[in-house]
Amino acid sequence: MIEFFLLLALALALGWPLGRYLAAVMRGAPMRGDRAFGWIERPLYRLLGVNPAQGMGWKTYALAFLLSNLVLGLITWVIFMVQAWLPLNPNDAPNMRWDLALHTMVSFLTNTNQQHYSGQAQLSYLSQMTGIVGLQVVTPMMGLALVVATLRGLFGGRRPQRELAAGGRTEIDLGNYWADVIRPSVRVMLPLCLAWSLVLTWQGVPATLDGGPVATPIDASAGMSEQKIPLGPVAPMVAAKQLGSNGGGWYGPNSAVPLENPTPLSNFLEVLAILVIPVAVAFMVGSFTGRRKFAALVVGTMLSMYLVSAGVAVWAEAHSAASHDIALMEGKEVRIGADASGVWAATTTAVNNGSVNMMLDSAAPLTGLVALSNMLINAVWGGVGCGLQQFIVYLLLSVFLAGLMTGRTPELFGRKIEAPEVKLLAVLVLLQPLVLLGLTAITLAFPSLTGNSNPSFHGISQVFYEFTSAFANNGSGFEGLGDATYWWNLTCSVVLALGRYPALILPMVIAAMLARKRVAPESPGTLQVETPTFALTLIAVVVILTLLQFMPVLVLGPIADHLALQAL
């Protein structure tokens, strides 16, 4: 437990100054580092043919976001399907089948990193360094860009309204998408990745382009005369996967492999990296908007939910009655321990990271419940940008419901929340259960499609977890599921996209709609959102909307699994 509190203290201590720096970067005002970073940024703007100072309305901003994803996705998809014919392939990885390549591309494009492949065997070094790590660097910054544009809209836009050239309508300036992606990528993500990769290399994580040594197995009865140990530029990828709320590992078993996570210090640094940027984004709100109390609401609410989830996970893994069952140690690293495994499991799902230092299929059932709950909420800390974006959705819903209950007009920062905004919020609320419960039911109804390795309650958890992980842009999974099939690759590709793009774009649209409205002055009847009372209301709305509506499947899955284990 000491390690957990040290982890939390360091995350908060690093997150506060990094959040202030992030706010300065996203404001785009002159900074001391302009001369150092400008020589990287200016050629990128010229290559893209964009003016970083030019403002965008929500339509232009969303179109630029979707266009950049389309281009990057097509390039990455092709690389995966032709990697055997390209250089930097010392392990002779074959070309990916089109559906597996599609799922892998969509997974990393949506900042999810759900893996239906084993990286060391099925991807070349070139594919890992370009299609995988490249997307791991840029896609988190895309999420950050969208949430920053949403924050600008909530507070009236970057500048006063400007006239459109056609139609004479007014449009809110939400910033420039290209600048909002490039600036944090160059000034925040890449420097942090460099620092973390150097420290991980020092701890023993490989960082080489060599193909790896060949060893002779000690046990000749294994049927292998020799074994090739796969290496590669692992440390840079591990740094990017952890810092960018990505989670996709170089090796199939992820950070449970000693080559990705060799020491207790590397384990601590990797789980700390999961938290640093999402915590910083929460702190960024205060400096960026100028409302410190609003930032306190965001940080306090997220921190409270995280403490509950992490506490339950650590208790379930290491201190509950079920934790003494020797079966629960299958799939766990003894050198890491149950406490550290529980902290990682809670953290990787509280953040949309998805990396693991144990196989979650072997976790205690209640740890699986914590992981599922975190992903269904998707805003405990959430991923880089997308977690705060989901928090804003809960904030808007809470304001609307609190207004109805108290007989006041629902307003957020002086702007009324009316029928058009509520309809868009309803789309986001209903989309999650329709997708997750619908596809889970279909998959379980046809055992030939399921591919699960466990019967009964745990089998339900396996299937539901896979779709939940995809929709939450998390990427972790209950291993043992036979997911490298046409059914799983194609359905998860759809779920990945549905969980990413509406959740990022629709809140920005709502913010732009609110920004067009006249600001009403505060009065004694104004709903105060920056208070502990409203924070408790918001948490209650989160629990009702995301957990209670999924209670039947949670009871049939991890809760029933726990009760069955207790009965043995």
UniProtKB/TrEMBL annotation:
**What is the purpose of this protein?**
Part of the high-affinity ATP-driven potassium transport (or Kdp) system, which catalyzes the hydrolysis of ATP coupled with the electrogenic transport of potassium into the cytoplasm. This subunit binds the extracellular potassium ions and delivers the ions to the membrane domain of KdpB through an intramembrane tunnel.
Q: Does the keyword Membrane apply?
A: yes
**Record protein name field:** Potassium-transporting ATPase potassium-binding subunit
- Origin organism of this chain? Pseudoxanthomonas indica
What topology does it adopt in the membrane?
Answer: Multi-pass membrane protein
Question: Partners and quaternary state?
Answer: The system is composed of three essential subunits: KdpA, KdpB and KdpC.
Q: Which gene encodes it?
A: kdpA
What does the UniProt entry say about where the protein is found? Cell membrane
Cite the InterPro entries for this sequence. Answer: KdpA
**Transmembrane segments in this chain: where?**
6-23, 61-86, 132-155, 188-205, 268-287, 294-316, 379-404, 424-446, 486-514, 534-560
Question: Listed GO cellular component terms?
Answer: plasma membrane
* Keywords assigned: Cell membrane, Ion transport, Membrane, Potassium, Potassium transport, Transmembrane, Transmembrane helix, Transport
Coiled-coil stretches are: none
Question: Molecular function (GO) terms listed?
Answer: P-type potassium transmembrane transporter activity; potassium ion binding
